[in-house]
Specification:
Layout (H helix, E strand, L loop, with lengths): L1 H28 L13 E8 L6 H9 L7 E8 L6 H10 L5 E6 L10 H11 L4 E4 L5 E2 L3 H12 L3 E3 L2 E3 L4 H22 L11 E4 H6 L15 H10 L4 E3 L7 E3 L5 H12 L8 H23 L1 H26 L8 H18 L5 E3 L2 E3 L1
Parallel strand pairs: 1-2, 1-4, 2-3, 6-9, 7-10
Antiparallel strand pairs: 4-8, 5-10, 6-8, 11-12
Helix pairs in contact: 1-6, 1-10, 1-11, 6-11, 9-12, 10-11, 10-12
Length: 373
């Protein structure tokens, strides 16, 4: 039995190393994009779903209207998703003092046909949108003043139908920096996988696509009952129809910044929401990778218990290849100092992966005051 576990662990380790090295190659293949400094034009509708975001929605809106280097059409649609705080009133007051901007508020609770799921709410907003391109972002996100210029410039020069742009955490303490380190890896994997023509993940915090393409692929039809996946399922649909028109925008000016989870409970609920859709992917390769990664982490724990020296060796190899990959992502985001947190992150990452992987398949969880399944 011991030898079987050992050989299985070695096989899983080899596959994991090869996978991460392939992602590293994919990441390095993506050329860093820099706009040419031109004043850009275009037609964009920025959709912002908001639920209980009274403390973040104004900075989000302000960072959008303060954009420079863009002289086209910009429309902002805020979707108030049954907020129980002052989000609705705050947005209404803000709109009343910004008449010269194209900003509207949709209160889901006031619609003739009530909408309770996020994907249906976004679809409703896209139906109303006037922009040629849709940008999805979150109500707790901010961006620098040349964000829209970078996106419009990239669209003009590359003519892509679907663009995933980077997302970064604003981290202040150790707990938040550890989350930032992990999330940097997820962003890197998402970008590299798109480059390698085998996309797996992206984030609706910074997603751009042509409005007409959304309807061409029938939007969220087929997965609209799931609480998560308004980003990844759409990515897979568009890629299936237009494999050469999906890309990752590796550009510092295009980064949006958001806040990490404030507590372990919030982190666990968020990760459960993400993992809960793992069995719903049409591309079983993605599910297989997730299962394989889970088994690999489980095998390390087993080896640490049964053969501590061997288990430590597996852990060190895992950490080395992850560090190599993460360093290149952090170099792009200019946060290379975070790489020194990797040994600390490893102590928590394996138990957390094993726990979330099982927990995501059972029971319910809370997300922004709403119970989800």
């Amino acid at each position: 039995m011991m030898s079987i576990i050992f050989y299985a662990s070695c096989i899983l380790l080899s596959l994991y190393v090869l996978l991460l090295l392939s992602y590293l190659v994919g990441w390095l293949m993506i050329k860093t994009y820099r706009s040419d400094g031109h004043i850009e034009s275009g037609s964009f509708t920025i959709i912002i779903p908001a639920r209980n975001e009274e403390h973040t929605i104004i900075p989000c809106l302000q960072s959008i209207i303060q954009q420079k280097g863009f002289n086209g059409f910009v429309e902002i649609i805020v979707i108030n998703d049954h907020s129980s705080d002052q989000t609705e009133n705050i947005v209404k007051n803000w709109i009343s003092t910004h008449h010269h901007y194209h900003v509207s508020l949709i209160n889901l609770s006031e619609l003739t046909v009530p909408i309770k799921l996020k994907k249906a709410a976004i679809t409703h907003a896209i139906n109303l949108a006037k922009g040629e391109h849709i940008i999805l972002t979150d109500a707790d996100c901010t961006r620098n003043e040349y964000w829209l210029n970078a996106i419009a410039s990239y669209i003009r020069t590359h003519q892509k139908k679907f663009i995933y742009a980077p997302v970064e955490f604003n981290a202040k303490n150790l707990f938040e920096r550890l989350q930032s380190l992990e999330f940097a890896g997820l962003v890197g994997i998402g970008g590299a996988a798109i480059q390698l023509k085998n996309p797996n993940m992206c984030s609706a915090a910074n997603l751009v696509f042509k409005r007409e393409v959304f309807f061409e692929v029938n939007g969220y039809t087929g997965n609209d009952n799931l609480a998560s996946g308004d980003d990844e399922f759409l990515l897979h649909k568009v890629f299936k129809k237009y494999p050469n028109d999906v890309s990752f925008l590796k550009c510092n000016e295009a980064i949006v910044y958001t806040s990490p989870n404030a507590s372990i409970k919030q982190l666990a609920d968020q990760r459960k929401r993400w993992v809960s859709k793992s069995t719903s992917y049409e591309n079983r390769y993605i599910t297989a990778i997730m299962v394989g990664a889970y088994l690999f982490n489980a095998s390390i724990v087993l080896m640490l218990v049964l053969q501590p020296i061997t288990g430590l060796g597996l852990l060190l190899i895992k950490m080395a290849v992850e560090g190599l990959f993460l360093f290149h992502i952090l170099y792009f985001t200019k946060r290379t100092s975070y790489i020194w947190l990797l040994p600390i992150a490893e102590l928590f990452h394996i138990p957390y992966v094993l726990f979330i992987g099982l927990w995501a398949q059972v029971g319910t969880y809370q997300w922004k005051g709403r119970k989800l399944y």
